Amino acid sequence: MRLLIVEDEKRLALSLAKGLTAEGYAVDVVHDGREGLHMATEGTYDLVILDIMLPGLNGYKVCAALRAAGHDVPILVLTAKDGEYDEAEGLDTGADDYLTKPFSYVVLVARIKALLRRRAQGPGASPVLVHGDLKVDTAARQVFLDEDEVTLTAKEFAVLEQLVLRPGEVVSKAQILEHVWDFAYDGDPNIVEVYISALRRKLRSGLIRTVRGAGYRLETAR
Hints:
By secondary structure, the chain is α/β, with parallel strands linked by helices. The strands form 3 sheets. A 5-stranded parallel β-sheet has the order 2-1-3-4-5, sandwiched between helices. A 4-stranded antiparallel β-sheet has the order 6-7-8-9, with helices on one face. A two-stranded antiparallel sheet has the order 10-11. A hairpin with a 4-residue loop joins strand 7 and strand 8.
């Protein structure tokens, strides 16, 4: 699998490239929007990781230009911006998924794998994680339980995503803190319990099980 990273933060871009190369991907890196568009147009890539705030040409325009030219390569957008308007704009221009900085590398890899699976399944498929009657749409940031939509805050969604990405596995409080609040978080680690409690209220009390001394596990939704 060949990936293209278009990111002007050189340290971040090179760090991602190193990690993804270790995962077995072939990775090209560029730091400018116009060069990124040229590479994505001329090269054969399985996925493009595209920053929004780029010199030369911003990520929205790069994405729109690729789609207008008929390129269907999966595009994962990275941005330091956070908000429904920015997300909607990114998805409206043809992006397949959207990740806000700072993000967890584990989540990034999971999103990449999900998008590559989606492409392999063919057009029309959706990046939806399904666990029993629980459905989590990572692109639209929507959650459904037994076909009913459940409204979650951004942090609630991020915590749930950590659990649904590892179905049947115990996810520790430390892992959730690291992946949702990033390495720089130095607040009360019990904040995780607050969000777990909120998810239980909004979803189903028995859906998230506490494994004493270990963490949390997503139970099979009935």
